[in-house]
Amino acid sequence: MVLITEDLIRRRAEHNNLEIFSLEEVSLHQQDIEKIEHIDRWCRELKILYLQSNLIPKIEHVGKLKKLEYLNLALNNIERIENLEGCESLQKLDLTVNFVGELSSVETLRHNIHLQELFLVGNPCAEFDGYRQFVVATLPQLKWLDGKEIGRSERIQSMQGLDAVRQKIREQEQAYLQKRAQEKEEAQRKLQKSQKKEKTDTQERRPGCDGQCEESNAKQVAAGREESFCEDDKDKEFWEEPCAYTPESRIEAHRHIEEKRKAKEGERNKDKKQKARTLITADGRVLNVNEPKLDFSLSDDEDGNNILLDLSVYRYLDTSLLEVDVQPTYIRVIVKGKIFQLVLPTEVKPDSSIAKRSQTTGHLVVIMPKAQELVKPKVSPVSKSSRAIEASTGNTSKAKGLEKLEVDPRKQSIIDLANIVQEKKTISQGPLKLQCSRLSESIQDIEDFEDSPDIPPLI
């Protein structure tokens, strides 16, 4: 039995920030609800209420909704109009395709002075002789009935001979109520018969303990094999069996559909259990699994002493749909419920592992430090550069001997003492420093030079 809960109303109040105390409109259609409750206490500001396509047998717990303007109860199991006197603002009432047979219950809507539209099409009372005349005469505030406007002339004509029409309506109601009583008795007998048959079938399937257990088990296995073949025949027989359209038959059909759905869910869950994923064998051996069928690469970073896993997950996949579990000998990644598991070549440290997403490709990169640390000698930058030079020139460190620099013997000569003397003289005159070339150099450089004692020397 499906009931109206606070969680259900809050989920239907998404447009109101999940607040129900100030809710003005709520849609609870096609929820298999079998009883109206709590709405008059939780949603006092409600103006529009949709309850169509459910299994509601009675109008109740809506009388305190003073602001309710539109109530839709189409396609339910309602047999009587009642408990709507408190809906002072009610303007439209939809009871299409129900089981309203007491047409006289329409008189309770006289108190709803703002009611303008009423839908009773598809109900047994809509087939009564004098139905429309009776409703129009009973509800003077009504402007539309079953989608057809009520004119002034029709209203005047409906008042003529109203007593005779009312008497005719009551006779038809009595006949309908007697018919309904017979339908209820028939439905009750059918229910008891089906329950008795189900109980008998259950006892037959139960194995006995009188020494014939093997035979009973064999029969049970054979019955299980035949059950799948007979199930479709039973379903076909159920739907082809003629029956009256009553609230009981509608509920029975609903129950049958629910049982079929639960049976399919049970089979599906059973198949899932039978096809349980085998990730680790009974002897403790970890298996490699790639259910999402993703490309990946596993590399060994010797310099950082790490193992790197690059998993090509979908680029626009939300990170919340990824679960990473690093173990000492394997890694497991769950991508949207599908398992990727890979055995690692060496043992790693799970606590020091790091998982991150690439901002460009979206790939999942997992860095897993090795549990066994490697001790390496420190290499100076100079030795590295020398090794690079040796590699480029083709020389190796395993040279036979050291190469020394050779001095050109032609460049070896006696020390030139003349170069020790400064070539230029610095003459200071105040803050300036002047350099004069040696006179001997200038004389030697100029040809046909005559030194005249009459000419003073240049400073």
State mean pLDDT (0 to 100 scale). Answer: 80
Helix/strand structural class? alpha/beta
Distance between the termini: 128 Å
Query: What's the β-strand tally?
Result: 17
Shape: elongated
Please indicate the percent range of residues in DSSP E strands (runs of 2 or more).
15-25%
Largest sheet: 7 strands, mixed
Count, helices: 9
Q: Evaluate the radius of gyration.
A: 50 Å
Spatial arrangement of strands, main beta sheet: 1-2-3-4-5-6-7
> Uncertain segments of ≥5 residues (pLDDT<50)?
207-214, 396-400
Listing every helix as H and every strand as E from the N terminus to the C terminus, the arrangement reads: HEHEEEEHEEHHHHEEEEEEEEHEEH
Helical percentage: 25-40%
Would you write up a description of this structure?
- With 459 residues, the protein is an alpha/beta fold.
- 32% of the residues lie in helices and 15% in strands.
- The strands form four sheets. Strands 1-2-3-4-5-6-7 form a seven-stranded mixed beta sheet, covered by helices on one side. A four-stranded antiparallel beta sheet has the order 8-13-12-11, with no helix packed on it. A four-stranded antiparallel beta sheet has the order 9-10-15-14, with no helix packed on it.
- Helix 3 crosses helix 4 and helix 3 (131-138) crosses helix 5.
What is the strand and helix layout of this fold?
Blueprint: H1 6-11, E1 25-27, H2 39-42, E2 48-50, E3 70-72, E4 92-94, E5 117-119, H3 131-138, E6 144-145, E7 148-149, H4 152-158, H5 162-205, H6 213-240, H7 247-274, E8 289-290, E9 296-301, E10 306-311, E11 322-326, E12 330-335, E13 338-343, E14 354-357, E15 364-369, H8 381-393, E16 425-429, E17 432-436, H9 439-445
Parallel strand pairs: 1-2, 2-3, 3-4, 4-5, 5-6
Antiparallel strand pairs: 6-7, 8-13, 9-10, 10-15, 11-12, 12-13, 14-15, 16-17
Helix pairs in contact: 3-4, 3-5
